[in-house]
Design brief:
The protein is of the alpha+beta class and 525 residues long. It contains 20 helices and 25 strands. A hairpin with a 4-residue loop joins strand 11 and strand 12. The structure holds adenosine-5'-diphosphate and 5-O-phosphono-D-xylulose. It catalyses: D-xylulose + ATP = D-xylulose 5-phosphate + ADP + H(+).
């Protein structure tokens, strides 16, 4: 491996991932640390600790996972000195509260000791709020009231107030735990936290990730004073630091810790780290009529627009390396809820059994049956619980319970179809490009093709690690420019079945009505 190398990290919900590519954008190495399995001492389940609506991850677990990942590479004699540029991605919205004086700890990291032992006392909050948290409804309501409503807030920041968005998480600490807030020197989002470790100093928040905070004006690309005051008072601006609006600007070189402990070159450049969804977009070259769908822990739908389209159920993010914008739909009940249904309705709890049932026992859509699977509090719609409808009647279970396996896919994809149509204003989708863990499953992608009536493609190189790959591609872009041919990057994995597509077209309006019924049925907290 004598090439020049470009590295991308992804600190996602369940794992820390790394992708290394060379000058010709070939993946030469991938590595992962799975939090729950490999760092069990932190007591997480699927990477998080759930306490009612509060969902956190131990900040020190993330710190330790970085040394663990790099020591795995060391054990393989990985040529760290060949890395020219690094960048990274992370779950959006989550936050890290650095204690007063933590910057001194970061600036003096000793290569002889682990990051964990040196940063043990660096955090004002030991548990970082994550994107799965939904405990801040009262602060969301207040923020929308102050600004003049949900749409008004969306017009400024790209999104209405969402529980997981960093500004509302900060408001919760500011209102309930002032000593901790006052003891906080810097608030990073998860991506800028990881970048800070590499820089040995606080890294700025990248504009695409700042767009997921309910604090940032996506037009002027600056913090909004009224929102800062509402969420964290006069002190918040200083605690957040600057925003980096252009993702190809070099923030600095890797700090001495990584040079001396692992053998990184002292000239290795660090680019801003981004949210995982913007990074996923950079992993692939898109045509204007392409829509990208990521089926990971969360499910997301992403499209690039030249101007911001703001609605109260989508998110608009600044594009990390251009003046364009990203429109995004995000669902919390993604892969983990599919796993739950798989484990409940298959005898072997395997994707193979799930697919066999889908292809043989419930191989056709049934327009009389609908299921809604909000095992955890959903984002769109804001709903919780599992609901099944047969011929318009709410039922406890389908007569053939196998139908749950088809229904969970159908409802997710019908929701994406109905909501993306509102963002596309009649523009036709030419291709659906699918990435993320579940993109390996062709049977799931067939249902997606049938619901949308559009051909589905997935990456030819098969990498499921799109966010870390996108970050590595950004690192490479800094050195080599943008030179990809989008045509060769994808393989066709599913073409729509016309009959099934007609059924799904008929089902769409009933789906929307039943979803409204589910939302109406939600009781008060
Ligand atoms: N063959 C498969 N079919 C469906 N889902 C799968 C398959 N393989 C992996 N997955 C799902 O992918 C998820 C992880 O996706 P990934 O994109 O790596 O997650 P993250 O959002 O943490 O980056 C797992 O929770 C798993 O359920
Ligand atoms: O909340 C969002 C986007 O708004 C999520 O998409 C997170 O960014 C989590 O990412 P994964 O762990 O699923 O990759």
């Amino acid at each position: 491996m004598a090439d020049t190398l470009y590295v991308g990290f992804d600190l996602s919900t369940q794992q820390l991932k790394l992708t290394v590519i060379n000058d010709t954008a070939d993946v030469v190495c991938e590595e992962t640390v799975r939090f729950t399995k490999e760092l069990p001492q932190y007591g997480t389940s699927n990477g998080v600790i759930i306490n009612g609506h509060t969902v956190t991850s131990p900040t020190l677990m993330w710190v330790e996972s970085l040394d663990l990942l790099l020591s795995k590479l060391s054990a393989k004699a990985f040529p760290f000195h060949s890395i020219r540029v690094i960048s990274g991605a992370a779950q959006q919205h989550g936050s890290v509260f650095w204690k007063r004086s933590a910057s001194q700890l970061l600036r003096h990291l000793n290569p002889q000791e682990t990051l964990k032992s040196q940063l043990r006392d660096a955090f004002a909050l030991e548990q970082s709020p994550t994107w799965q948290d939904s405990s801040t409804s009262e602060y969301c309501q207040k923020l929308e009231e102050i600004i003049g409503g949900a749409q008004e807030l969306a017009n400024i920041t790209g999104s209405r107030a969402y529980e997981r968005f960093t500004g509302n998480q900060i408001a919760k600490i500011y209102q309930n735990d002032l000593p901790t807030y006052n003891n906080t020197e810097r608030i990073s989002v998860v991506s800028s936290f990881l970048a800070s470790l590499f820089l040995g100093d606080y890294a700025p928040i990248d504009a695409s990730d700042a767009s997921g905070m309910n604090l940032f004006n996506i037009h002027s690309k600056t913090w909004d004073e009224r929102l800062l005051i509402a969420c964290g008072g006069e002190a918040l601006r200083e605690k957040l630091g600057n925003v980096e609006v252009f993702g190809l600007n070099v923030m600095g070189n890797v700090c001495r810790y990584f040079v001396e402990r692992y053998g990184f070159s002292p000239d290795c450049k660090v680019l801003p780290f981004m949210g995982d969804n913007p990074s996923t977009l950079l992993s692939r070259k898109l045509c204007p009529s392409d829509v990208l769908i990521s089926l990971g822990t969360s499910d997301t739908l992403l499209l690039v627009t030249t101007y911001p389209i703001t609605t109260t159920e989508s998110h608009t993010l600044c594009h990390p390396i251009s003046n364009q914008y990203i429109s995004m739909l995000c669902y919390k009940n993604g892969s983990l809820t599919r796993e739950h249904i798989r484990d409940t309705y298959t005898s072997t709890a395997s994707w193979d059994s799930f697919n066999t049932i889908l292809r043989t026992l419930v191989s056709k859509p049934d327009e009389t049956k609908f299921g809604f699977y909000f095992q955890v509090q959903e984002i769109i719609p804001f709903a919780y619980g599992i609901y099944r409808f047969d011929n318009g009647e709410l039922v406890d279970e389908f007569r053939d319970p196998n139908y749950n396996i088809r229904a969970i896919l159908e409802s997710q994809f019908l929701s994406m179809k109905a909501r993306s149509a509102r963002l596309l204003h009649g523009q036709r989708i030419e291709r659906l490009l699918v990435v993320g863990g579940a993109s390996a499953n062709d049977s799931i992608l067939q249902v997606l093709a049938d619901v949308f009536g559009v051909k589905v493609f997935s990456p030819r190189d098969g990498t499921a690690n799109s966010a870390s790959f996108g970050a590595a591609m950004k690192a490479r872009m800094m050195a080599c420019g943008e030179d990809r041919d989008e045509k060769s990057e994808y393989k066709l994995v599913a073409s729509p079945n016309k009959e099934n597509n007609k059924v799904y077209d008929r089902m769409l309006s009933t789906f929307v009505k039943l979803e409204e019924r589910v939302v109406m049925a939600q009781g008060p907290e």
